[in-house]
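Reviewer 2 asked us to include a model.

Predict the structure of this chain.
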Amino acid sequence: FFPSSRSINMKVFALFALAGSAAAFMPVSQMGSSTQLRAGLDDMPGNTAPIKKFDPLGYATIGSEETLRWFRASELKHSRIAMLATTGYIVQAAGIHFPGMLSKDVSFESLSAMKPFDAWEAVPDAGKAQILGTIFVAELATEAQGTHYMKGGDYPTIVFPPIDFSGVSKETLKVKQDRELNNGRLAMIAIMSFIAANNVPGSVPALAGLDMF
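Predicted model (structure tokens):
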């Protein structure tokens, strides 16, 4: 059910990371498909220094406003996933782990002694199924809340823990959204670097020689 090959697992992780990066840095384009679309791009969170209007591949002009909102939702989701992945990799590499047993044959301590991608391979198939199933349920929950974001509804929010920004001013919320996107973009670069360093020794000089890569 789950591939045991290390190379296949690495390609899957790389695919998810690259899918997120494809929508990164896309808030503004030189040319919009309509006056309304062009006006909305400048106001979107994430259009910040040091490189504003960075959209070299023209993603912001592909399709309609609904397409643009789909790109933004994808960037948000992949930013959050990348931040979790980067943090998880660092925590794993530091040897921090839960107490007890993951399964009857695998302890959390034994996993913490492995490289993060090796630890994933050591997780029993049933455990992998539970993790992927939880992700699937979370995805359904974010896509099924009220009016869909592609139709003008709110963008996906964090399922757990829920965070209420209803009492935050518009200006403060914009700052927080900018920070989330910028941190997420950096995290996407970070986790792709981790994947590269894990699979191609020496490909990321800053990580060369570290035990967990």
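Residues 35 and 41 are 10 Å apart (CA to CA). The helical segments are 6-22, 35-43, 65-93, 108-112, 116-122, 125-143, 170-199. We have added this to the supplementary material.
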